[in-house]
Amino acid sequence: MKRSQIILLLLTILCLGLYFTIPSIQTQLNLAVSILCSLNLESVIAYLREFGVYAALISFLLMILQSIIAPIPAFLITLSNAAIFGWALGALLSWSSAMVGAALCFFIARILGRDVVEKLTSKKALDTADAFFERYGKHTIIVCRLLPFISFDLISYAAGLTSIRFWSFWVATGIGQLPATLVYSYFGQNLSSGGKIIFITLLMMFALSIIIYIFKKIYDKKARIS
Q1: Where along the chain do its domains lie?
Q2: Which helix (H) or strand (E) holds 15?
Q3: What distance in Å separates the CA atoms of residue 94 and residue 92, rounded to the nearest whole number?
Q4: Which of 94, 110, 122, 182 could form a disulfide with 160 if both were Cys (CB 3.0 to 4.6 A apart)?
């Protein structure tokens, strides 16, 4: 076993140990995941505000958490950050925490390999990501970061399984996710009145994008068979 694998294994054991042996950590983590899974923006904002001066730190950790284990749209946290900290600081917090989450996903995949990543995502999802890399090559990172129906975390994991260098991945991720982060942060700062309508519209667009993508996959598959 390589040293990097040992270090990652020890960190995983440490995190699991803290989760299962300290009730307060387990309770807070379960609550955080539950609130994120509810897709209720006001609940996320209220939850973060409860931490006062530590709200930014908790938001940072939540973004990393959703990157690794929770398939929750990251824009939910991005909108909350902007509503709490303002457009500029919220965007910076969301962008930097997403970058850390992407890097962790990349290294988890590179160190532990495809079998582990398939358990964290799914074989079918990874096959889809592989198809994107075959089609777009080195431009896959930027292209997929700009598509709202492509999982941010899936592409990070998939990139770690390719021969792409980390710094190329890092730069492409930073550039690709910046436009969406700025747009969501702008709307997040103006959540009152019209902003809430925009948020609902974003959720509907996200859901519609997924539906269109699924139907397109089914259509392409039938076309190949025929």
Answers
A1: 3-224
A2: helix 3-21
A3: 6
A4: 110
